[in-house]
Amino acid sequence: MDVDTRLLRSFAAVCEEGQLTAAAARLFVSQPTLTKQIRQLESLLGVELFERSRKGMAPTPAGRALAEYTGSMLAGWEDALRATRAAAAEQVSTLRVGFEGGIINVMSRRTVADFTRRMPGWQVELRQNNWFDPTSGLATGEIDLTLWHAPPSLSEQYNVAVLGEEPRCAALPVGHRLARRAVIDFTDLLDEPFVAIPHEAGHWRDYWLAVRERGGRPVRIGAVAHNADEWLTAVVCGQGIGFAPETMSRLAPREDVAYRPVRGLSPSQVGLYWLKGRELTPAMAAFVRSCRATIVGQAGPEVPARGSAPAARAVPPVRAV
């Protein structure tokens, strides 16, 4: 019997959420579509997988039995996809690198030119990170490396070659009452509305809302943006303020946006990240060295196959060539 993995993902989401509405939102499908998928899976298997009630959806004994295997089956399929995509990328000599919207010029033309010098015949495919995927495509094997401004604690979940450290700054519309200040205290921003990224971004949403620094104080959400352009537009329109890498003030300056340092806000660790358990390939290592040579301005130490590399103190401005 052949079963579409999409049906298994739908089944797993309903099991975890306990209701169709939340599961449908998580999967970005309508509730009728999700209902149809669950019915289709039940028809294929010839069993009822859920007991339906006003309280939600509870797995039947048959559903619980299937749920015990679904996670490992889907994880195995993801592993197979990653291996397949990695093999295909190696065959065509392409390194796939993710980047954060608004700061792609951190990696300049010099970076790519340096990489092709180190790896003749190879090319770099750049992909903007997806805010609806907390792994930016690393988990599915769609990319090999990604550039992140992240909390240092993320090094516990991923391998990382650290490029430096960079402050997070506040982005405000120029007419904001705090925009004239040279430096803003974090406590002065606690009651401000913020432009948030989607809930699906997971820990990234909390990080760019500075939830840890807030000490349990709730965040006022003025708007939710789905990409970097929407985020910046919402700030310009006064729907909220936000935190961003200091790089944006240099690489994405606007007359209608004021970027200001924030006292009391921890800096980001800037680095190239890849999955734990994945060996660093020669192409990946070459790209790390190219970034260190063109972004940090020095070659830096050799890149280990696993774990994190020593950090530089700061990432200086890089002009696009």
TrEMBL record:
Keywords: DNA-binding, Transcription, Transcription regulation. PROSITE patterns: HTH_LYSR. Coiled coil: none annotated. InterPro entries: LysR_HTH_N (IPR000847), LysR_subst-bd (IPR005119), WH-like_DNA-bd_sf (IPR036388), WH_DNA-bd_sf (IPR036390). Residues 3-60 form the HTH lysR-type domain. It holds the Pfam family LysR_substrate. SUPFAM superfamilies: Periplasmic binding protein-like II, Winged helix' DNA-binding domain. Belongs to the LysR transcriptional regulatory family. This is LysR family transcriptional regulator. The lineage of its organism: Bacteria, Bacillati, Actinomycetota, Actinomycetes, Kitasatosporales.
